Amino acid sequence: MLDSIPVDVGLLHEGERVRKNDMQVELGGPLETEKFELVRVRTMDEIEDGVTTIIGPDLAEMKEGWSYPVGILVEVAGPRLESDLEGVIERRIHEYSNYIEGFMHLNQRYDIWIRLSKKSYKKGLTSLKYIGAVLHELLRNELPILEKIQVTFISDPEKIRPLYADVLATYEARDARARGLSDDDVDTFYGCALCQSFAPTHVCVITPQRYANCGAISWFDGRAAAGVDPKGPIFPIAKGACIDAEKGEYTGINESAKKRSMGEVNRVYLYSAFGYPHTSCGCFEGIAFYIPEVDGFGIVLRGFRDVTVNGLAFSTMADSTAGGRQVDGFHGISIEYMRSARFMHADGGYDRVVWMPEETKKRLKPFIPAGVYDSIATEKTAAAIPELKEFLTAHNHPVIQRWREDVAEPDAGDQQLHVFNAGDIPIQAEGFRIILKNARITAEKVIIIPVKPGKQAGGGHGGQ
Questions:
Q1: Nearest Cα to 117, choosing from 30, 35, 27, 54?
Q2: Separation of alpha carbons 75 and 229, rounded Å
Q3: Where are the chain's structural domains?
Q4: Is 287:331 a contact under the CB 8 Å cutoff?
Q5: 197: number of Cβ within 10 Å
Q6: Which residue has the higher pLDDT, 162 or 425?
Q7: What number of CA atoms fall less than 13 Å from residue 408's CA on the CB side?
Q8: CA atoms within 13 A of residue 456's CA, in its CB half-sphere
Q9: What burial class does residue 30 get, using C-beta atoms within 10 Å of its C-beta: 0-12 exposed, 13-18 middle, 19+ buried?
């Protein structure tokens, strides 16, 4: 696609992964606290078109196998540009970077994670100026309203640090704009297919009260993007009729999901982690995960490095959450969605959230109901399920009322074991989706039998 770049650039490379053993260098990612990518609209005389500047070590000056901080600033100008488009253009950095052979870009905003493969480095991809050239060329081709584009890469931590607070403030200002609008106030939602190269059956639905899972695109961003690029990856979705206001199911979303997922996803609940939860690719900012032992949810963000209260790390649960699947109890979410009044509305909202990292809890304090805040455990107060149960009981968390309502007192001598209560429990069976309404599962014992590949439990013979 670009003759001046020493590696191939094209759609066929979108979705490629660079594993650790194949990595030349890493920019951002979980080992670096301060990293970002930001687009800012400037006046025509403020920037110089086509210029890429590197502040700090370039790729050739970085040690093989090491991780480095990174800041990516893309400044754009054009008579028809408005600041509403900054977030939209910003998300294209993810898309176009992944067109580059051996250059992997994941996530967004302050969570970016970039890896360069050894193979592409040996082919000559030894400077970030090549990345800047690709961004310049593709942004100009896809968005002609951009008349000037200037790119700056910052890899010096001492230069990133003073910018970081201002960058976060810019994101917050964008996000706050959409908080006064309700899903009931609009007739059109927006879909984003930017991540379908990583998860072909995933389509993000963006509404005023449910941000994109990546946290980078608001309803206003979606409207602006669809307006300037009608054939682009962000598109309008007619809301249609409301099927279930509590769960957030709409005919228009279902029709769009079926079409965009090639029939794999037929129904979507915007506000529930059960039944037909919203799909995820892998760029979600956090995960809401069901904890059956307490009939509540834990929350973990991508940056949390320890294991959660259920003994699993973010990366482990991400495998169950990602891939465009609808997996009950594993829900990819954005931080801004956690600030919404419709956050997991059908599942009880914050009355059902029982655990989250302390840093996340403090960050969300203005949006968590005051009566619930102190009763949500963190890694400081509950590191395992038994401790969590004790904490929730001692702090009279609203979820314990569900225990009283749902668990029947057994008769004397009744040895049944209460396994879990999840409200509606879906079961896949021979092409059918069976939903057990208001289900409570009990058993005298639980038997786990490993099944060898190619065989089914019970010997695999009909009639047994």
A1: 27
A2: 19
A3: 11-178, 181-406, 415-464
A4: yes
A5: 17
A6: 162
A7: 10
A8: 6
A9: middle
11-178 sits in which CATH class? alpha beta
| Residue 285 burial (10 A CB sphere; 0-12, 13-18, 19+) | buried
Q: What is 181-406's CATH number?
A: 3.40.970.20
Report the C-alpha gap between 417 and 279 in whole angstroms. Answer: 32
> Model's pTM, two decimal places?
0.69
Which residues is 289 bridged to in the sheet? 298, 330
Of the chain, the end-to-end C-alpha distance in Å amounts to 59
Based on C-alpha coordinates, what's the Rg of the chain?
A: 24
Tokens of 352: 């059902």
Phi first, then psi, for residue 234 (nearest 5°) are: -110, 125
- The conformation of residue 94, written as its DSSP 8-state character, comes to H
Amino acid found at 242 = C
**How many C-beta neighbours within 10 Å does residue 230 have?**
10
Pairing of the two strands 67-68 and 23-28: parallel
The string of pLDDT tens digits covering residues 178-207 is 787 899 999 999 998 877 767 788 888 999
Of residues 348, 204, 216, the one with CA closest to residue 277: 204
Hunting for tokens 């669809």 — which residue is that?
226
- 3-state SS, residue 417: strand
Sort 331 into a burial class: Cβ within 10 Å, 0-12 / 13-18 / 19+: buried
Q: How many CB atoms lie within 10 A of CB 186?
A: 15
Residues 135-149 have pLDDT tens digits of 999 999 888 889 999
